[in-house]
């Protein structure tokens, strides 16, 4: 007796588009430049000393890196100091932002999402992949949702075999 069993992959037949934010993860080392290291007695930024440091520092060490500029101590740092560091990093670093590593990741994902062609998601059912090995900030999921709800028919979160509905466009 020969029994033949045919299995159907309903997920593959469902015409769902999977969106994996981790695929937008830009390569490159992430670094924090902390101005606290330039403060006199950990409290005050001395303009003359700071300008001398900025002039003599080897900024090429930041080549092709993503850099977040911050001051992690409670000190008054004038805005021009951050601007001065940014101007020196600009020719070398891939990205320069004000903030911490979390802020840097948010900016990197926002830029990647802005560069995405959203037309391919027009009137589609999209599943946003929920977990993976690359940490994706929640802010990226929020930005992605905002962009997808403008074009997609529906947005779900999770894996195609087990999704959580997030958005469904009302039929007119």
Structural class: alpha/beta
> What kind of oligomer do you see?
single chain
| Helical residues, percent | 25-40%
Strand portion: 15-25%
Could you name the key traits of this structure?
single chain, 172 residues, alpha/beta, 4-stranded mixed sheet, 3-stranded parallel sheet, 30% helix
Describe the protein in words.
The chain is of the alpha/beta class and 172 residues long. The chain has 2 domains: 80 residues, no CATH class; 64 residues, no CATH class. The chain has a 4-stranded mixed beta sheet with strand order 1-5-6-7. A 3-stranded parallel beta sheet has the order 2-3-4, sandwiched between helices. β3, α3 and β4 form a beta-alpha-beta unit.
Summarize, please.
The chain has 172 residues and is α/β, with parallel strands linked by helices. It contains 5 helices and 7 strands, in the order H-E-E-H-E-H-E-H-E-H-E-E.
Topology:
Blueprint: H1 10-13, E1 16-19, E2 30-34, H2 47-56, E3 66-70, H3 79-89, E4 95-98, H4 101-114, E5 125-129, H5 138-149, E6 154-159, E7 162-168
Parallel strand pairs: 1-5, 2-3, 3-4, 5-6
Antiparallel strand pairs: 6-7
